[in-house]
Amino acid sequence: MFIGREQELNTLNKLYRSDKFEFTVIYGRRRVGKTALISEFTKGKDTIFFTGVETNAKQNLDNFSRCIMEYNTGIITDSSFTSFQAALEYVFELAKAKRIVLVIDEYPYVARTSKSLASTLQLLIDKNKDNSKLFLILCGSSMSYMEDHVLAYKAPLYGRRTAQLKINPFDFFEACRCFAKFSNIDKALAYGIVGGTPQYLMQIDDSLSIEENIKNIYLDPSSSIFEEPNNLLKQEVREPAIYNAVITAIATGCSKMNEISNKIDEDTSVCATYIKNLITLGIVKKESPYGEKSSRKTIYSIADNMFRFWYRFIPENTSIISRRATDLAYKRIAPEISAYMGGVFEEICKQYLWKLLLENKCAVNFSDLGRWWGTNSKTKKQEEIDIIGADKEAVLLAECKWTNEKVDLSVLETLVERSNLFPYKQKHFYLFAKTGFTKGCMDKAAEMGNVTLLSYDEMVKT
């Protein structure tokens, strides 16, 4: 069953209806659902769907030729075009009379071995775009290749595309659509352990408990996700061992560049290169205190929940897991899950605020959201605010509490006090809670008038 991606499908169908030449670049991390999106879009449409493989140019040309001939004649044949140029010219000719979608999936595999392919496409697009009904889609999982060799200014195909779609993992609210049988709390836990990548979401069985899912997905050496982080790194980078060390350092609490460097015993300049690539892959994220650009305060964290969960819990338990001591491994992990979910809940709350903004229901029309941390000049103490966002006139400040106790008045009072560190005259406070709020907190919020209290259940219902 295909879930989500309504905006992307709407964009593709709008382009399709133009009935003129279109060239769309679709890219994103592996497992994120690019091919599923394209397959859904091309249902019922005249389509030549070719998937490149990691082989030589001749084999890919043969496969491409076979796809074209099967489309045009309905017959699978071993005959092959003499070159990619000849094959593409044939497709452009077919598309003069009617709308045809040509999909080249895993384009980097083809282009790396056929060095002239990009220039050939450039030549044929320039020659045929004004009298062609071809809808060309180039799709790729290698983020760096697609950005550097397809989308970049110096790339041969620059300026030829009519649209590009970067396919990101689902957010929490989209991911919830995969879990019809789960309770609200279990939906958050499921998102926390696998994130929003569709291929990983498919591993979750919502007829089982979260404990059973963790055991099946992460604590079984034969599961598809058990080796997934290592396998993905091997596909994406040249030195997976060092990348592995960097991710492990970040996942276990090293958030600053010098801490990561010391942990893995590499120069900071070396670490910076690896971290930059991990950010491009969407595995690591970089943060500075909201409103500040100082690199001195920059910290790094794991952006993808599957990687966060795996690197937080699996490496230290690998020996136990490999001996099939599943229950023992889970007993070691279970007490840490609630603390682990604190960061996940913050991200869910950010996504909820973006949802409110896009629905024109947010108290502040912020342009961005982030965290803030720093020294209070009056108390000389380190302070932190979970979420902050602002427009020219007003600021939004929020705290997120994933605890089984109700959030009390002290949390609101502390947030109000910390808001004095910022010069905005108009302020609105949001408190997000897993289990609700005490009467004292609710009474104070009602008295102030610029406070929104939201329980997790309320967030999921809207």
The largest sheet is: 5 strands, parallel
Q: Which strands sit side by side, in order, in the main sheet? A: 2-3-4-1-5
Given as residue ranges, the uncertain stretches (5+ residues, pLDDT < 50) are none
Question: Roughly how many Å apart are the termini?
Answer: 24 Å
Look at the helices and sheets and give the structural class: alpha/beta
Number of domains: 3
How would you describe the overall organization of this protein?
The chain is of the alpha/beta class. The chain has three domains: 6-166, Rossmann fold, CATH 3.40.50.300; 173-341, Arc Repressor Mutant, subunit A (Orthogonal Bundle), CATH 1.10.10.10; 362-461, Trna Endonuclease, Chain: A, domain 1, CATH 3.40.1350. It is 47% helix and 16% strand. The chain is built from 22 helices and twelve strands. Strands 2-3-4-1-5 form a five-stranded parallel beta sheet. A five-stranded mixed beta sheet has the order 8-9-10-11-12, with helices on both faces. β11 (426-433), α21 (439-448) and β12 form a beta-alpha-beta unit. α4 (84-94) packs parallel to α6 (117-128) and α9 (184-194) crosses α16. The radius of gyration is 25 Å and the shape is globular. The mean pLDDT is 93.
Structure keywords:
462 residues, Arc Repressor Mutant, subunit A, globular
